[in-house]
Design goal:
Layout (H helix, E strand, L loop, with lengths): L12 E3 L2 E3 L6 E6 L2 E10 L3 H20 L2 H17 L1 H12 L3 H21 L15 E9 L2 E5 L7 H12 L3 E5 L5 H13 L7 E3 L4 H10 L5 E5 L2 H14 L2 E5 L4 E5 L5 H13 L9 E7 H16 L19 H17 L2 E4 L18 E4 L6 H4 L6 E7 L2 H9 L3 E2 L1 E5 L3 H10 L4 E4 L15 E2 L12 H5 E9 L1
Parallel strand pairs: 6-7, 6-9, 7-8, 9-10, 11-12, 11-17, 12-15, 14-15, 17-18
Antiparallel strand pairs: 1-2, 3-4, 5-20, 13-14, 16-19
Bound molecules: 1,4-dihydronicotinamide adenine dinucleotide (NAI) and 2-oxoglutaric acid.
Length: 489
């Protein structure tokens, strides 16, 4: 489709169980990053009044939703999961068209969304408290969980199905109602996910979606008096700004933000495995994951061999439209992201790092129509360089050489972030020191830094998160408040 195509679809807000246009009568345009002239569709540029309606309807629906039993709530998720599964090709195609990741990756993420819904459907049937012996032998004391109320959800563009679902599903199963504001870049993919919940018959007002500018709707989400908690994934700057307002209002907040994730390759590593995982962890989704590998810390004895094997594989990477068969790496999400990544590559060169591979937009004529960049590898990167310290969010690997494992661990920990970290080693003593001494929320041994499992806690240390955890049963901590109940007959 092109800008002149009259059949393009305009996507609406979802408020109180109905699809509605914004009162502003304005729309934003979602473009395909693989072909910047291609329009994927239009989404609402909503106003604060639109948001107010969504928050009010979420509030009105909350008590009744809370009172449904866990299995009844879970049934809606099971239905929505089956609908999403039936639509997997359409949703994944939309995702590839909106944000650029390859179709197999987009399909994998959509399948993950199906699994998230099924996992949290069961959560409504699991225990949610403890019986605690009272010092009064005639009393019963136990804990139970109360929903937070109405939860505001602000999501990024890099996982447009999985992140909205891993926030909405636990929020809902624990009895909250939600208003979500997805990233504009992937607003249409999110609308298609919400459509599955709508078609599953979820009661009106329980789920609401309002699209529009972060500076308007994102800010409303944290300021609106009906919002009792906010869950955010995105940049550190925006996350911290939202947290300030949340603290001043005394509401709950949860932030998942950046990473500068290291992989350590020890002298005794299986180098083929380490190379494969560095490429997958660093370059899949064109490096646009908060868990992406960006610092590759390699011990001296294997440095040259590892570098040679890595470059051989990186050279084989095919860059192109994620919908085309044979493409391994798609474009970056937007021109803004492309410029950020190209700027960091220039900064790396100016700082004295040695560019081993890539660093440019690909030279093919097709590449000119999209936000493409070559997979890029630097070496001689020192810990104080900006490319070793700041989140680039693109396909850029920084090789760093060390003598000892102790030095490697110190270097890996020398970051304001602490989201995910990997080591490649066959020695149990190396594994144990890494597990013990690595300051990261996700510590992975002989596995890539990216790729989280939906049933396990996910989140970072230091500046990577607000120190809470998402996913698995850990999600209960944020989406509920504990009540301690004391009963005396
Ligand atoms: N941790 C992660 O998974 C992600 C990290 N990022 C990082 O952020 C950088 C910039 O990407 P952006 O898309 O610009 O991230 P962003 O933090 O601006 O956007 C994330 C979400 O916040 C919303 N938002 C933006 N401004 C807001 C405001 N003032 N108040 C409330 N909500 C607001 C956006 O509309 C979007 O829904 C990336 O280069 C990357 O380093 C971006 C996306 C995901
Ligand atoms: O690595 C993953 O699967 C999840 C990454 C993630 O949550 C993110 O990039 O925001």
């Amino acid at each position: 489709m092109t800008a002149t195509d009259v059949k393009l679809k305009t996507y609406l807000n979802y408020i109180n169980g109905e699809w509605s246009a914004s009162e502003t009568e304005e729309t934003g345009t979602s473009y395909n990053p693989a072909n910047k002239d291609e329009i994927v569709g239009f989404y609402q540029l909503s106003s604060s009044n639109d948001f107010d309606q969504a928050a009010t309807s979420a509030r009105a629906a909350q008590k009744e939703w809370q009172k449904l039993s866990g299995n009844v709530k879970g049934d809606y998720f099971l239905k929505a999961a089956s609908i999403l599964e039936e639509r997997i090709d359409d949703v994944a195609t939309t995702m590839t068209k909106e944000m650029g990741k390859t179709f197999p990756e987009a399909k994998g993420e959509t399948a993950r969304g199906v699994a998230i819904l099924r996992y949290y459907a069961g959560e409504g049937m699991r225990s949610n408290g403890d019986v605690i012996p009272s010092s009064d032998s005639g009393a019963l004391m136990f804990t139970s969980r109360a929903p937070v109320g109405v939860v505001g959800i602000v999501t990024p563009w890099n996982f447009p199905v999985a992140i909205p679902l891993w926030k909405m599903a636990p929020a809902l199963i624990y009895g909250n109602t939600v208003v979500i504001k997805p990233a504009s870049e992937t607003a249409i993919t999110c609308a298609k996910v919400i459509e599955c919940l709508h078609d599953a018959g979820i009661p009106s007002g329980v789920v609401n979606m309002v699209t529009g500018k972060g500076s308007v709707i994102g800010q409303d989400i944290v300021e609106h008096p009906e919002i009792n908690g906010i869950s955010f994934t995105g940049s550190n700057a925006v996350g911290k700004q939202l947290a300030h307002t949340a603290v001043s209002r005394g509401i709950k907040y949860q932030l998942e933000m950046g990473g500068k994730n290291p992989v350590i390759v020890a002298n005794d590593a299986n180098l083929d495995l380490a190379v494969e995982a560095t490429i997958s962890g660093g370059l899949k989704s064109t490096g646009q994951k908060c868990t992406a590998t960006s610092r590759v810390i390699v011990q001296n004895d294997v440095y040259d061999k590892f570098k040679e094997k890595l470059l051989k594989k990186v050279e084989e990477i095919t860059v192109g439209d994620g919908l085309e068969e044979g493409t391994w790496m798609g474009p970056l999400v937007s021109e803004k992201q492309l410029n950020t990544v190209l700027d960091y590559i220039e900064i790396g060169k100016e700082e004295g790092a040695k560019l081993l591979f890539g660093g440019n937009k690909p030279s093919s004529s097709n590449a000119a129509i999209g936000h493409y960049v070559e997979p890029t590898v630097f070496e001689d990167v020192s810990p104080n360089m900006r490319i070793a310290r700041e989140e680039i969010f693109g396909p850029v690997l920084a090789l760093m050489k060390v003598d000892t494992l102790e030095e490697a661990l110190n270097m890996a920990n020398d970051s304001e972030y602490g989201l995910s970290a990997s080591i490649f080693t066959t020695k149990i003593s190396n594994m144990l020191s890494f597990m013990e001494d690595m300051d990261a929320g996700m510590v992975r041994i002989n596995a890539e830094s990216a790729g989280v499992e939906l049933q396990a806690p996910f989140g970072g240390m230091k500046q990577s998160s607000s120190h809470s955890r998402e996913q698995g049963r850990a999600a209960m901590e944020f989406y509920t408040n504990t009540k301690t109940v004391f009963v005396k007959g």
